[in-house]
Specification:
With 345 residues, the chain is of the alpha/beta class. 40% of the residues lie in helices and 19% in strands. The longest helix has 21 residues. The relative contact order is 0.11.
Length: 345
């Protein structure tokens, strides 16, 4: 945008009422902006982050309506990460990891090796690495993926996530607040993409669309990795966790009955989550290879892996099995990798 247009953009935001109040509270003034090719909407830049979500798009022509809000499930996920997930505790750990990961020393080496594993399936170097739903880039291994890239594109719909990511990447990062089911990136642009533990938080009817978007922006010859969660479609975890899941199911039934009898309201629910099957993705996605990211879940780690019960040795054997049979472990374990390589036309 030209300087005069930026002045006009700031004026539109300042006088736009409650709809744009969140832009003014994001952590800094509007620095610049972009306009869509049809000149209908403008997209501000705040703290080096390009705001390209529909609920912060600015109608450039006065007759246009505001673009609209995120759907309920997406808003739920964004609110969690803006208000809690990407805030750090007194030990420096993000709340997302405290809640959803096993941070104990006994599991650390195994988890680190699983993080490193992703790097095998993307190009070791290039111009653009797209990190779809990058979050805060909370582990050092995540930074290593783009070590030999010119730019690390962080696409996320949490402003807090992108703010944290910018602290680590600085000028190497390109920061886009957006919905990855509608990526504002040209097709055939990025050399590699990664999407780690994100797709299953997208509404179930939009998950395949999000992955197809990642494939669309991948250049011919480019590579990409999606880390997914089979959850109850994992036969190995279904077997190992059956007694614990049965207990939780019975407990929840009792609690629901008590709440009904006492008219007690339910507390805040969990993040939106839906796990499709491998067969579903085979039918709806471009061709991909199935590999393992990690075959055991966090509940498995917490229930079965302990230093006094040879936990590290067990995980060494698990990792060895994963290295020997990556496709089988990706199919039967908890967390698969869907590995893509875009063919030249």
């Amino acid at each position: 945008m030209e300087p005069a247009e930026i002045v006009e953009l700031k004026s539109k935001i300042a006088t736009g009422g409650e709809f744009y109040a969140n832009i003014q509270q994001l952590g800094g003034p509007v620095e610049s902006g972009l306009k869509g090719s049809n000149n209908e909407y403008a997209y501000p830049v705040v703290n080096g982050i390009l705001l390209m979500l529909k609920d912060v798009a600015i109608p450039w022509q006065s007759t246009l309506p505001v673009s609209g809000l995120l759907d309920t499930n997406k808003q739920w996920v964004r609110d969690f990460y803006d208000q809690k997930g990407w805030l750090a505790d007194h030990d420096g750990n993000y709340n997302d990891a405290v809640i959803y990961e096993d941070l104990r020393a006994v599991s650390a080496d195994y988890i680190k090796k699983c993080h490193v594993r992703v790097g095998r399936y993307i190009h070791p170097q290039g111009k653009y690495l797209l990190d779809a739903a990058s979050g805060s880039i909370q582990y050092p291994e995540y930074l290593a993926y783009s070590r030999n890239y010119e730019y690390h594109i962080c696409a996320d719909f949490s402003f807090q996530a992108l703010t944290e990511a910018k602290k680590k990447l600085g000028a190497k990062g390109i920061y886009i607040l957006c919905d990855i089911t509608q990526l504002p990136i040209k097709k055939n642009t990025v050399d590699s993409f990664i999407s780690l533990h994100t797709i299953y938080h997208i509404p179930k009817d939009q998950q395949a669309k999000a992955i197809r978007e990642l494939y669309r922006v991948l250049r011919p010859g480019g590579k990409g990795v999606v880390v997914y969660d089979w959850f109850k479609h994992s036969p190995w975890m279904n077997t190992w966790l059956f007694p614990f899941r049965a207990f939780v199911f019975a407990k929840n039934r009792v609690l629901r009955t008590v709440r009904k009898l006492t008219s007690t309201k339910l507390g805040a629910g969990r993040l939106y989550f839906y796990a499709h099957t491998l067969e579903y993705f085979r039918k709806t996605l471009p061709p991909f290879q199935l590999r393992v990211w990690r075959s055991v879940s966090v509940p498995f780690l917490r229930y079965y892996i302990h230093p006094w019960l040879f936990g590290k040795q067990i995980l060494d054997k698990v990792y060895e099995k994963e290295e020997q049979s990556p496709e089988e472990c990706g199919r039967k374990g908890e967390y698969p990798m869907l590995v893509f390589e875009k063919e030249d036309p």
